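Morning F.,

Quick status update on the modeling queue. The single chain you submitted on Monday has been processed. Sequence for confirmation:
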Amino acid sequence: MHKRGPMYVIVVGAGKVGYYLAKALIQEGHEVLVLEKDRKTVESLRDELGELIAYGDGCEIRTMSEVGMGRANVVVAVTGDDEDNLVICQMAKRKFGVPRTIARVNDPKNEELFRELGIDQTVSSTRIIFNLLEQQIETGQVIPLAALKKGEIEVVEANVTSGSSVAGLKIGQIDLPPNTLIISVIRDDHAMIPHSDTKLREGDSVIAMIKADREKELRAVFE
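Structure tokens below.
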């Protein structure tokens, strides 16, 4: 049975990805703890995140116990080191029984290995991580990245041109093909996580996940 309501999410790694992810999750009302082993990074984020950021090595069992990993619903390891991310997720699952682990993969060559070792999701595109969590929270369903690998699902970029019928519309107002997941809106070279009330502007690029056979339908919507 899918657990609804706020989750306790431990994010290991307070780089750009971890920071951005934590902020988004906090906004959505989840309990979040960011764990970071670089003291300077922790100090620089202390004013903003307060007690939500902790100094410590996510690979150490003692640290894991101290931050309450045993009650976490999700552990997301997004450090810059694939081996650390793998170890953190393995320990979270095996030692602490965390139901769901997501690892950032910096080197795509490691993706297969991570999967063989039982990590629930490996994500090489940082933009997708939050949306995977969001999908899980809201519907209990996640588009499996394995489907991406098989080519059943594609990541498609569609541009909002000057004559586009969707320019000026909110994402929630657009009639999208079934099971389309909009991952990101890129505006002025800045990727943002979209919500249903995000208004599209001329010049935006929309990144979406969609079943391969519906790509033409999606493109038609943006023309």
